[in-house]
Amino acid sequence: MALYEHTFIARQDLSTAQAEGLIEHFQQVLTDNGGSVSDTEYWGLKTMAYKINKNRKGHYAYMRSDAPSAAVQEMERLMRLHDDVMRVLTVRVDEHEEGPSAVIQAKNARDERGPRRDRGPRRD
């Protein structure tokens, strides 16, 4: 079996619980077809660079899996048929990186820095 990283964007009008439910659904598709999912991340509702299907924002999700190619093809087929999924990206990798993805690391670094200082009252 090969190692894969999957990223998909769901419609903005879904709730967070529904977006996380999509992650669980597609994780189950992979496991039912002989694969395993090692890690999932919900990146949140993010603004996109351009509109997709009249949506300016989307729920981003990320999964790391070890699955046969048939399982990945079936999951991608179901994602493309699903009305709530707007875009899908699957990349085959040689090995999975340990720890959280770069998106989560950047978010944690922003949270640790605290509030921005330039947001105070103007001093003219």
Automatic annotation (TrEMBL):
The terms describing its cellular component in GO are: cytosolic small ribosomal subunit
Which stretches are transmembrane?
none
GO-annotated molecular function: small ribosomal subunit rRNA binding; structural constituent of ribosome
| Basic and acidic residues composition bias: residue spans | 108-124
Q: Which UniProt keywords apply?
A: Ribonucleoprotein, Ribosomal protein, RNA-binding, rRNA-binding
HAMAP family assigned to the protein according to its UniProt record, in alphabetical order: Ribosomal_bS6
For this protein, the record's PANTHER family field holds: MITOCHONDRIAL 28S RIBOSOMAL PROTEIN S6, SMALL RIBOSOMAL SUBUNIT PROTEIN BS6M
Q: What does this protein do?
A: Binds together with bS18 to 16S ribosomal RNA.
- Identification of the protein by name: Small ribosomal subunit protein bS6
The species is Pontivivens ytuae
Q: Which gene encodes it?
A: rpsF
